[in-house]
Design a protein that fits this description.
This protein is of the alpha/beta class. The chain contains 15 helices and 25 strands. The model has no long low-confidence stretch (mean pLDDT about 90). It binds zinc ion (2 copies).
C-alpha cells in the first residue's frame, strides 16, 4: 500500500475580515513557514487596550515544525506582533533591508537580543526545508516591499503581500511583473492577494503625482509648511524633502517614529538627502517662515503624535500659529476619521490653512485598485484564490472580481481567520479550523485581558464605580464600622450627599436583614449589598454603576 499523498495546508491567522494583524501559516507534513506577523489597533470598545495581535496558539502547539517567519514589508500590520511572538518562540526571520531595519529597532525596544534576522534581497530564492521561497520585488507605500512565492511539493503558493502597480516609482524599483508572469506560466496553485482597495475602480495613481502636487504647493506659498504623513512612507518623505530643497526651505523632522524611520532609511541609503537640509528643531528660530518645512507624524489624528500636540499647545517646542500651512499627506485609516477631523478643526481654530486629501492630490494609496488587481490575476493565473488583507466586504468584492475574470466560484475561498484550506494535486477544500481570535496587549501584559475584563472596563467607563466598605464583628456579624462608600465616575459626591447617606442606609438595612436570617457567608452578604444598592441607585439615578462590596472582619 502506497503512502497517502501529503496535503498542503494554508491557514490565515490574521488579516481576514479586518484591516491589520496579517499572518498566514503554510504547512506541509511536519514543516511550517509563516508569512508576516502583524498587529492591529484596538477598536473603540476595547478600553485601555494598546494593540491587538493574532492568536498564535496553533503555532505554539506546532513549535517544532516552524522553520521561519517571512516578512513582505515593514508596516506595523505585518511586523508589529513580532516581538510578542519571538518572546514565545525563537525562529529565524527573513526580510528585506528596510523591513529588517525597522524590525531591529522594534526588537531593541523590547530588549530582544538573540533573534536570527536574515536579510534577503528581492529576487533571492531560499531553501527552507521542503519549501523554496522566492522574494519578488513589489511596490507599496513603503520601500523594499516584496511578494512571496512558496514552491511546495503540491504547487506554487503566491502571496502578493500589500501591493500596487506603479509604473514610475520614486526609487525606480519596478514591481517585477516579468517574474510574476513567469510564475503564472509555470502554473500557480493558489494566490493570496491584497484586497484593501478591491472596492475602488480604476488604478492607484503613481507616487510621482504627489511630488508634483507638493511642488505646486511649495511654489505658491510663503507660509511655514507642516506636512503630516506616515513615517514609513519614505518615498513621500523624500518627495517633501526634494520640494523643500528646490524652494530653499530647511527641513525639521518631528515625532518619535518619524525621527526613527528617517534615521534608519538614511543609514540604509534608502533616503538620500542633500547635506545641511535637515536642521534641529532648536535652530528653527534663525529662519523665516518661508524657509521652513516641518515633516511630522500624526496624520491619523493620533492624540499622542506630534501634530496633535502642536495643535493643542502640548508640544514642547512647536506650536501651530496663524498663517501656518498644514498638509495631511495621508488618507484616514477606517476608524480614525473622528480623530483626524478633531485635529483639523483645532488647526483651523489656530488660524492655520489646512490641505487634506479630499481637497488636493496630496496622497496616493499604497494598495491596488480593481484594474491593478485584474492585471495581477491575469498574470498569475492561479488555479485557486484566497482574498486576504481586508474587511469582509473587501474580500467579497475581490472574490467577485476573480469570478468576473472567469475563475470557477468553487475555486475561490472567501474564508476567515483560522480556516484551514487543504490542497492536494487533485483538489482543494476547507478542512476544519484552528484558534484565531484576538490577543489583547495592555501595556506589558499579553493576553491577560479577556472579554470579562473588557466588559468590566466598558461598564466602568459608562456608569462608574461604587466601592462599599464595611467592617463586621467576627463573633456577632454586627456592623462595627461603616458602611463607607467611595464612588468614581458615578456622581460627584459633594453634590449628592443625600444620595450617599441614603445609600449607606440601604447597605445597613441589607446587612441587618442578613443578620436576622443568620446569613454569614461573605458571598451572600456581598450579593445582598449589591442587589439592594443596585435597585436603589437605578431608581434614583437610572444608572448602574459597578458595585464592589468589600467586607472586613475584626
Ligand atoms: Zn502595508
Ligand atoms: Zn498591510
Amino acid at each position: 500500500m502506497g503512502r497517502k499523498p501529503s496535503k498542503l495546508k494554508i491557514i490565515p491567522l490574521g488579516g481576514l475580515s479586518e484591516i491589520g494583524k496579517n499572518m498566514t501559516a503554510i504547512e506541509y507534513r511536519d514543516e511550517i513557514i509563516i508569512i508576516d506577523c502583524g498587529l492591529s489597533f484596538p477598536e473603540d470598545e476595547m478600553l485601555g487596550i494598546d494593540i491587538v495581535i493574532p492568536d498564535i496558539s496553533y503555532i505554539l502547539k506546532n513549535k517544532d515544525k516552524v522553520k521561519a517567519i517571512l516578512l513582505t514589508h515593514g508596516h506595523e500590520d505585518h511586523i508589529g506582533a513580532l516581538p510578542y511572538v519571538l518572546k514565545k518562540i525563537n525562529i529565524p526571520v527573513y526580510g528585506t533591508r528596510l523591513t529588517l531595519g525597522l524590525v531591529e529597532n522594534k526588537l531593541k525596544e523590547h530588549k530582544l537580543g538573540s533573534v536570527h534576522l536574515q536579510r534577503v534581497n528581492p529576487g533571492d530564492s531560499i531553501k527552507l526545508g521542503i519549501f523554496t521561497v522566492e522574494f519578488i520585488q513589489s511596490c507599496h507605500s513603503i520601500p523594499d516591499a516584496c511578494a512571496i512565492a512558496v514552491h511546495t511539493p503540491v504547487g506554487i503558493v503566491f502571496h502578493t503581500g500589500d501591493f500596487k502597480i506603479d509604473y514610475t516609482p520614486i526609487d525606480g524599483e519596478l514591481i517585477d511583473l516579468h517574474k510574476i508572469a513567469e510564475l503564472g506560466q509555470k502554473g500557480v496553485l493558489v494566490m493570496l492577494a491584497d484586497s484593501t482597495n478591491a472596492e475602488r475602480r480604476g488604478a492607484t495613481m503613481s507616487e510621482k503625482n504627489v511630488g508634483a502636487t507638493f511642488e505646486n504647493i511649495f511654489r505658491n506659498t510663503d507660509k511655514r509648511i507642516i506636512v503630516a504623513t506616515f513615517s514609513s512612507n519614505v518615498h513621500r518623505v523624500q518627495q517633501v524633502m526634494e520640494a523643500a530643497q528646490k524652494y530653499n526651505r530647511k527641513v525639521v523632522i518631528s515625532g518619535r517614529s518619524m525621527v526613527n524611520v528617517v534615521g534608519v532609511a538614511v543609514d540604509l541609503g534608502i533616503l538620500t538627502l542633500p547635506e545641511n537640509l535637515i536642521i534641529d528643531i532648536d535652530e528653527m528660530d534663525r529662519y523665516n517662515d518661508n524657509e521652513i518645512v516641518i515633516i511630522t507624524t500624526g496624520s491619523q489624528g493620533e492624540p499622542m503624535a506630534a501634530l496633535s500636540r502642536m495643535a493643542s499647545n502640548e508640544h514642547k517646542k512647536l506650536e501651530i500659529r496663524q498663517g501656518d500651512l498644514v498638509v495631511f499627506s495621508s488618507s484616514p485609516i477606517p476608524g480614525n476619521e473622528k480623530l483626524i477631523s478633531r485635529v483639523i478643526n483645532q488647526l483651523f481654530e489656530k488660524g492655520a490653512e489646512v490641505i487634506y486629501e479630499s481637497l488636493a492630490e496630496v496622497h496616493v494609496s499604497g494598495h491596488a485598485c480593481q484594474e491593478e488587481l485584474k492585471l495581477m490575476h491575469r498574470l498569475v493565473k492561479p488555479k485557486y484564490f484566497i482574498p486576504v488583507h481586508g474587511e469582509y466586504r473587501h474580500l467579497m468584492k475581490h472574490a467577485k472580481l476573480a469570478a468576473d475574470l472567469g475563475m470557477p466560484e468553487e475555486n475561490i475561498f472567501t474564508i476567515n481567520n483560522g480556516t484551514i484550506v487543504e490542497f492536494t494535486k487533485d483538489y482543494a477544500k476547507v478542512n476544519g479550523s484552528v484558534p484565531a481570535g484576538r490577543v489583547l496587549v495592555d501595556g506589558l501584559g499579553v493576553g491577560d485581558v479577556g472579554n470579562i475584563v473588557l466588559r468590566d472596563r466598558k461598564h466602568l467607563a459608562e456608569d462608574g464605580l461604587m466601592v462599599v466598605v464595611v467592617t463586621l464583628a467576627k463573633e456577632t456579624g454586627k456592623i462595627v464600622a461603616g458602611p463607607d462608600i467611595i464612588s468614581r465616575g458615578f456622581v460627584y459626591v459633594r453634590e449628592s450627599e443625600v444620595l450617599m447617606v441614603e445609600a449607606k442606609e440601604v447597605v445597613k438595612n441589607a446587612l441587618e436583614i442578613c443578620e436576622n436570617q443568620n446569613i454569614r457567608e461573605w458571598a451572600a452578604l456581598k450579593n445582598s449589598i449589591r442587589d439592594g444598592l443596585k435597585d436603589f441607585l437605578y431608581e434614583k439615578t437610572k444608572r448602574r454603576p459597578m458595585i464592589l462590596p468589600v467586607i472586613m472582619e475584626v
